[in-house]
Design a protein that fits this description.
It is built from ten helices and twelve strands. It is of the alpha/beta class. The radius of gyration is 21 Å and the shape is elongated. The structure holds NADP nicotinamide-adenine-dinucleotide phosphate.
Length: about 300
């Protein structure tokens, strides 16, 4: 079995070693060395040149959960299945990140930090939890793991997705018709939508202004979902209380971007969930074994939906 591995950055040797250990029978080439006809390609943000030179016979594995960058590669063969990572150790990290952001908002830690800077001892009244709804925009692998992590705290939980969900303790909303009721009852909006033609720019002034006064936005999905100027305008006007942003339309976030110095914005450098080599390779190897046994592949991306 021939496997082509393409992973930008300095970890490539660790990826190669992990693939070699999980698939000892594989003949592994590391991009830019490449056989023209590997059985499988394991890629992350590949250059267009890769699929101009290489046509994987059986499947292309995306070494991340989001396939927006891969589907945008103009040379990507249309008829080879694309398989994405699902969880692979990311759900736990996302649950940590979002729980921190939600509790920081609910327990008003930013307000207390400001009071401390002013040397001001001023207890604030406890916020009513029943009015502090958490809205999970995108309710797939990551959204559902986040809901499970938040469940013990007792916040009202709601989801918004394309198809109806039935998860205990989470009110499901679907489609554009139910977006307004989802937004108006959401005090902390947690976005885990994939970036697709249908979701790009979805968090614009029209949507964000439907969130209640004092709401927070947590974006751990893709920067392209948010219209930055609209988010900043609503933070500046005081309609929104804060934003916790891990992903940006341009990464690294440009040094002159307003998010860096905005008093109501917390910026992290795309670290809410890092790709874990061992877990990811184990999932890819299990996927390859399934295909080799003639079983249906799991995690195949629907090109039409874009995720
Ligand atoms: N910051 C990071 O480090 C990081 C790490 C991993 C992933 N991510 C991002 O997180 C995204 C989500 O990952 P995941 O594994 O949770 O994906 P997933 O399991 O495919 O879930 C995506 C969710 O979004 C919903 N959705 C998609 N398009 C929609 C639309 N037009 N309207 C309403 N709902 C829509 C889906 O609805 P249905 O359930 O009805 O299909 C699903 O609930 C990835 O695409 C990636 O961009 C970021």
């Amino acid at each position: 079995m021939k496997v082509l591995l393409q992973m930008p950055g300095r970890d490539v040797e660790a990826w190669r070693a992990a693939v070699a250990s999980a698939l000892p029978e594989a003949e592994i080439a590391v991009w830019p060395v490449a056989p023209a006809d590997p059985d499988y390609a394991l890629v992350w943000r590949p250059p267009a040149e890769l699929f101009a030179r290489v046509r994987p016979a059986k499947a292309i594995f995306n070494l991340g959960a989001g396939v927006d960058a891969l589907l945008a590669v103009p040379t990507l063969p249309r008829d080879v299945p694309v398989i994405r990572l699902a969880d692979a150790g990311m759900a736990e990290q996302m649950a940590e990140y979002v729980t921190l952001a939600v509790l920081r908002a609910y327990r008003e830690m930013d307000a207390y930090a400001e009071q401390q800077r002013d040397v001001r001892w001023q207890p604030r009244p406890r916020l009513a939890k029943r009015e502090f709804g958490i809205g999970l925009m995108g309710f797939g692998v990551l959204g559902q793991a986040i809901a499970a992590a938040l469940a013990p705290f007792g916040f009202p939980l709601a989801s918004w997705s394309r198809t109806r969900k039935s998860v205990d303790g989470v009110t499901s909303h679907v489609g554009s018709a139910e977006l307004p009721v989802f937004l108006t009852t959401t005090k902390v909006l947690v976005c885990t939508l994939p970036a697709t033609p249908a979701t790009t720019g979805i968090l614009d002034r029209g949507a964000l202004s439907q969130l209640p006064q004092g709401a927070h936005v947590v974006n751990i999905a893709r920067g392209d979902l948010v219209v930055d100027a609209d988010l900043i305008a609503l933070l500046d006007s005081g309609h929104l209380a804060g934003a916790t942003l891990d992903v940006f339309a341009t990464e690294p976030l440009p040094v002159d971007h307003a998010f860096w110095h905005h008093p109501r914005v917390a910026v992290t450098p795309h670290v809410s969930a890092v790709t874990l080599i061992r877990e990811s390779v184990a999932q890819v190897a299990a996927g390859i074994r399934r295909i080799e046994k003639g079983e249906p592949a799991v995690g195949v991306v629907d090109r039409h939906r874009g995720y």
